[in-house]
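Progress narrative, work stream C.
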Amino acid sequence: QARVVESGGGSVQAGGSLRLSCSASGYAFGTAYMGWFRQAPGKEREGVAAIYTADGSPFYAGSARGRFTISQDSAKKTVYLQMNSLKPEDTAMYYCAAGLGDSGVLNPEMYTDWGQGTQVTVSS
């Protein structure tokens, strides 16, 4: 059974950086899409970044492009989200997810296995 576990959240001041990690087990790592999503209180869950683990191709939402970098370590079956120049509006619960589809890689509905989430808080 697939299992996805996030780590690395925390509190940081605006302009700071955090790196989130996501380990995936029970997957043929090189076949799935892995995505990072976030959900702030009262808002819908939104896609932030995704990566096709077969070749490392990254995908970014407009809000993340230029500030966030998604990467993978295939040997460790781990995906990372490096977040730089953080803003208060980045504050949210961040979730990692895995899925085998390829339509709408930043659409939460494409993903079948989700982690419990890790909180990111950015203060001004």
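Work stream C, second folded protein:
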Amino acid sequence: VQLQASGGGSVQAGGSLRLSCVASGFRLDDYGIGWFRQSPGKEREGVSYFRRSSGTTVYSESVKGRFTISRDNAKNTVYLQMNSLKPEDTAVYYCARGRPVLSAWSRSSMYDYWGQGTQVTVSS
């Protein structure tokens, strides 16, 4: 099982980035996939989650309306489209595979495999 996150970079406030998470070793539609972020000195924060069964999505309040998570089963890839970026969005972003039984999507302990992270830097 592997998750490969990419797409990070440096942008100015108000800009956009699209992160990709390519999964291998399992089928994406068999698992929920979450995006998290972590900045220095802060705990890892759940950003968004794509539910396995229903295909519905959830977002943290801090990104709701600006970020969109999506899934392409044919490419075994989950995306995080990030618009209207703010300096406080600066962090390393990780994708992760949800455990088969997941009760709280924003808790990192609910995930069993993690990608390596991709840096997003937003300047003011």
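The first strand starts at residue 2 and ends at 6. No further action is required on this item.
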